[in-house]
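Batch job 17 of 40 flagged for manual review because the log was empty.
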Amino acid sequence: MDIQVAVGFVGLGRMGLPMAVNLIEAGVDVVGTDLDKEQKGALEDAGGQAVDSIDEAVANAEVAITVLRTPEQVLAAAAVAYTQPRAHETGRKIVCRVLLDTKIKPE
């Protein structure tokens, strides 16, 4: 069963990539980005589209999903997703998932 929704993924690490692959296998169009080129390659191998920026990942997305390490990263990604021209036209939803790195010490 194909689900007709476009999803933008920001963060394709240990949790993000498997989540994106599950969506692709369910027939969802996924466009994603990550700092790691290997992770982007794995997304493409699964049938998704890898891009180089948050802007590109969420440009046509109805749903933007972040799977990032810090709240600051999530806020930065959300700011990009919400300030794009089409964000309000599409009624874009943002799903945020913060994975706190236990090695990061609070300031």
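Reviewer: the log was empty due to a logging misconfiguration, but the result itself is present. The chain has five helices and five strands. Unflagging and moving on to job 18.
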